[in-house]
Amino acid sequence: MTEKTEIESLYRTYRTYGLSIAYRMLGTFTDAEDIIQDLFAELAVKNRADVQNMKAYIAKSVTNRCLNLLHSAKKKREEYIGEWLPEPVAGTAELPELAAEQKDTLSYAYLLMLERLGPVERAVFLLREVFEYDYEQIADMTRKTEANCRKIFSRAKQQLKGSEIPSTPIAQGQRKAMVERFANAFLHYNPETLLSLLTEDAVLISDGGGAARAAIRPIVSRERLLRLFTSPNAYRDLRTWSVHVAEINGEINLVYTSEAEVKSVLCFQFSESGDQVQHLYMIKNPQKLKHIQTYLG
């Protein structure tokens, strides 16, 4: 096997695994792709005979690159205009490492939950909870002691307490029907249907990043959302765009397009009972829609 053929084989084998870690660590697919490209460029000139476990090496390298990027991006996050939301991905086609029972760890609500953790806590939590590494391996990957990793994981679990994703997943058919009902009620200014679909404490969070018109702060309560969703002056752009039901982050959500250009993605998180919408996440920042555009375009 030639050098080039070997690297191509490693890339085909481990690219999606590395992406699975990097995307959850960063919440941005474009940055995750850059990290994977850099990793394999370095691997091409590395003495690979020293690598005893390639999968663990990939996980360690991706984790450390992500930690470095998260630390350097902290100021950018603080200066970000409005609310910062993760970059959505279309379906799970790019991340087939996921087994069906792990699909919820790609959901938009799960990514938002991870935002409550610091970089190292996020790394330890993901490596243990999602990728099922033991503490000895995690210690090596994060350059921490095994005892420290156990404490970090415990602290992360405590921080996430109360923000867990509903334990009973909604069937895709039921979710699709509810998302379509919302889209139709919003389009036709139907307050009765919207009232039945939204929880009393429903929240809308929008991300325009200063590049698209979006609310700077979260909009809280069913009453306020009803006024907005039924106002002819609010969200007029969404009503002029075509709306599509699509699998985003492994779940049925909405994509808005204009002349084949993706303009917005609207992701839903349902209540524990599964019959009402608890959170809505509207992504309008064009920089965060590039992957959706490429995949759907």
From TrEMBL:
InterPro entries (alphabetical): ECF_Sigma-70_Domain, NTF2-like_dom_sf, RNA_pol_sigma-70_dom, RNA_pol_sigma70_r2, RNA_pol_sigma70_r4_t2, RNA_pol_sigma_r2, RNA_pol_sigma_r3/r4-like, WH-like_DNA-bd_sf
Residues annotated as domain RNA polymerase sigma-70 region: 10-74
Entries under SUPFAM superfamilies matching the protein: NTF2-like, Sigma2 domain of RNA polymerase sigma factors, Sigma3 and sigma4 domains of RNA polymerase sigma factors
A Pfam family hit: Sigma70_r2
Domain RNA polymerase sigma factor 70 region 4 type: 110-160
Quaternary structure, from the entry: Interacts transiently with the RNA polymerase catalytic core formed by RpoA, RpoB, RpoC and RpoZ (2 alpha, 1 beta, 1 beta' and 1 omega subunit) to form the RNA polymerase holoenzyme that can initiate transcription.
Protein name, UniProt field: RNA polymerase sigma factor SigJ
Gene name linked to the record: sigJ
